[in-house]
Write a structure and sequence with these properties.
Its EC number is 2.7.1.6. By secondary structure, the protein is of the alpha+beta class. It folds into 2 domains: 2-196, Ribosomal Protein S5, domain 2 (2-Layer Sandwich); 200-372, Alpha-Beta Plaits (2-Layer Sandwich). It is built from 11 helices and 13 strands. A hairpin with a 4-residue loop joins strand 4 (60-65) and strand 5. The longest helix is centred in the C-terminal third of the chain and has 25 residues, at 259-283. Bound molecules: 2-deoxy-2-fluoro-alpha-D-galactopyranose.
Length: 382
């Protein structure tokens, strides 16, 4: 694939590009906690987007999407949102780099890869951070890695309209081979944990559905959490976000809460606690206990946070009945995309086959499954 992308670049633009590899991500546990300033436990995976990029000595940004076989060209003066949807993830990053005071000369890009779109593996963060990394490199902008992460997130807010947290861009950029990273989404302190699962595998079951509610409900969840914080602040001024709240605080004022807001907040508080506890499980190498927390996370996302959907619930329930599975849950924003499963290697083939058959029968949709390997974050392909 890399060779094809470089060949197309040379064909279209005639120069020699640098190549950047930008991965998707999984999240083991800690869902919808990032924008509540809480904790997440993601990793970069071997589903990746590749960028071929070179300066072009003009004032334009020319780009070709290898996967869509579409081309576009934009002036770098007054970069704004485009009608070409896919280009917005790129334009958003360009706008952020310019906003930070960097002069960007013209450049050409060919990009493409194998992160399934809309499957909850963060192809959008991979596009944002991959381009940011490439531009930083070819123009020697000296932007810190963490600032590239923040620019990617801002691009998502301003050009894609999703008020996402920082997890996806962080995992993309700071991912480390064979490790998960526990991120404190407030301080941005992080810690790597070896993810030693020799006879287990991370398996993603892709529902192939993306319900249209996804981005509007995502933004609604953010607002619901903020409403919960506002109420708590009347009694606990120290609560700046749900990360600072406890189940006891919530319970003490349950009557004053709208019941929906209450269960949203309770879920977030519990999920943050689960991330902490799951990290202790990893320290003890107790994958069984870790898996149990994944199931509990799914229950909370399904019943309290209500961001799951029948397809995800079906897959999580079915996985739970399989002895080869330690844990399963929906992953990412929800309303479609993937479940993440920890599956014993010896039972892997039987698991994927059984899941695919049952899913086909239930929804008449062909399930896609992926075995994810944990790789390093975005970097140059030498
Ligand atoms: C999406 C968002 F982009 C992340 O920031 C995160 O909130 C996630 O949904 C849910 O945990 O991937």
């Amino acid at each position: 694939m890399i060779q094809d992308i470089v060949a197309r670049f040379k064909e279209l633009y005639g120069s020699q590009p640098v190549v950047v590899r930008s991965p998707g991500r999984v999240n083991l546990i800690g869902e919808h906690t990032d924008y509540n300033n809480g904790f997440v436990l993601p990793a970069a995976i071997n589903k990746e987007i590749y960028f071929a990029v070179a300066p072009n000595n003009t004032n334009t940004f020319r780009v070709y999407s290898f996967d869509l076989n579409e081309q576009a060209e934009f002036s770098l003066d007054q970069v704004k949102k485009s009608d070409i949807n896919w280009a917005n993830y790129l334009l958003g990053v360009i706008a952020q780099i310019q906003k930070a005071g960097h002069q960007l000369p013209g450049f050409d890009v060919v990009f493409g890869g194998n992160i399934p779109i809309g499957a909850g593996m963060s192809s959008s963060a991979a596009i944002e951070c991959g381009l940011g990394y490439a531009l930083n490199h070819i123009f020697n902008l000296s932007i810190e890695k963490l600032d590239l992460v923040k620019m990617g997130q801002k691009a998502e807010h301003e050009f894609a309209g999703v008020m996402s947290g920082i997890m996806d861009q962080f995992a993309n950029t700071f991912g480390k081979k064979n490790h998960v990273v526990k991120l404190d989404c407030r301080s941005l302190d992080y810690q790597y944990y070896p993810f030693e699962i020799s006879d287990y595998r991370i398996v993603l079951c892709d529902t192939q559905v993306k319900h249209s509610l996804a981005s509007s409900e995502y933004n609604t969840r953010r607002q619901e959490c903020e409403a919960g914080v506002e109420l708590l602040q009347k009694y606990y001024p120290e609560v700046q976000s749900l990360r600072d709240a406890t189940e006891e605080m919530l319970a003490a004022h349950e009557q004053e809460f709208d019941p929906i807001i209450y269960k949203r907040c309770r879920y977030v508080v519990q999920e943050d606690n689960r991330v902490e506890a799951a990290c202790h499980d990893l320290e003890k190498n107790d994958l069984v206990a870790f898996g149990q927390k994944m199931y509990a996370s799914h229950q909370g996302l399904q019943h309290d946070y209500e961001v799951s959907c029948p397809e995800l619930d079906f897959l999580a329930d079915l996985a739970r009945q399989d002895e080869a599975v330690l844990g399963a849950r929906m992953m990412g924003g929800g309303f479609g995309g993937c479940t993440i499963n920890l599956v014993k290697l010896s039972g892997l083939d039987a698991f994927t086959q059984k899941m695919a058959e049952a899913y086909q029968q239930q929804f008449n949709i062909t399930l896609k499954t992926y075995v994810a390997e944990i790789v390093d974050g975005t970097g140059l392909v030498e």
